[in-house]
Amino acid sequence: SIGALLDVYPEAAEIKNEHGDLPLHILLQNGGKGDVNPLVANIMLEAYPAALSMKDSLGRYPIHSALIKLRMHSFVQLALKQDLDGENPAAVESPEGDLPLQLAVENLSSAEVVQALVDAYPPAINRTRTDNTSNLMTVYINADRRHVDRTIEQIDTMCDILNIFFDKMPDILKDPELSDPSKGKKKHLCIHHALINRSVDKV
């Protein structure tokens, strides 16, 4: 196992390959958007906490790569407790200009991860993506019950995330400027989006 290998040679966690990637980077890059064993990632981070502040060959910090993966909730919460080279991990942008919260809502992270990211850096709620879609609108789009590729559990999680945003920033409930850039210039209140997306029973 990885734990046994690190027991024998703990310095291995600090050695980069020819591309400049640490073992933790390689683990998080492997398999695209698929699953990564979070226990292995946690072991690697504990073995070499400084890895959190080191970018991989793609220019990403480990917290960004982890939020693109599935089932990485425990790793992200552990990463948020580490110092990212003097920066708040929740406030550091990816090479594409996304904050961790933006990656979390885009990639269907759990409500627990979103809550941890919001608590760590509340201003992230107001950030927009490169296509001008707000975090709130991204969650609305993902919570749409008309999505044929969404499970009931995923939709319920998105609704829980909406409630996290509303609890932290209740004024957004009154914002008439919310819009989905893909649908032109139409503006709606939060309740309109909830009714359109059929998620109003949980929000």
Question: What features would you describe in this structure?
Answer:
35% of the residues are buried. Helix 3 runs parallel beside helix 5, helix 5 (73-79) packs parallel to helix 7 (111-120) and helix 7 runs parallel beside helix 9 (152-168). The longest helix has 17 residues, at 152-168. The protein has ten helices and no strands. It has 203 residues and is an all-alpha fold.
Give the key terms.
203 residues; mainly alpha; 43% helix; disordered C terminus
- As a percent range, the share of helical residues equals 40-55%
Tell me, what's the shape?
A: elongated
Average pLDDT, rounded to a whole number, is: 77
Count of beta strands: 0
Query: Sheet with the most strands?
Result: none
What is the N-to-C succession of helices and strands?
Answer: HHHHHHHHHH
The SS-based structural class is: mainly alpha
Counting H and I runs of at least 4 residues, what is the number of helices? 10
Percent of residues in beta strands? under 5%
Distance from N terminus to C terminus (CA atoms, Å) equals: 44 Å
Radius of gyration: 18 Å
Which runs of at least 5 residues are low in confidence (pLDDT < 50)? 179-201
Give a quick rundown of the structure:
The chain has about 200 residues and is an all-alpha fold. It has 10 helices and no strands.
SSE map:
Elements: H1 2-8, H2 23-29, H3 38-47, H4 62-68, H5 73-79, H6 100-106, H7 111-120, H8 135-143, H9 152-168, H10 190-196
Helix pairs in contact: 3-5, 4-5, 5-7, 6-7, 6-8, 7-9, 8-9
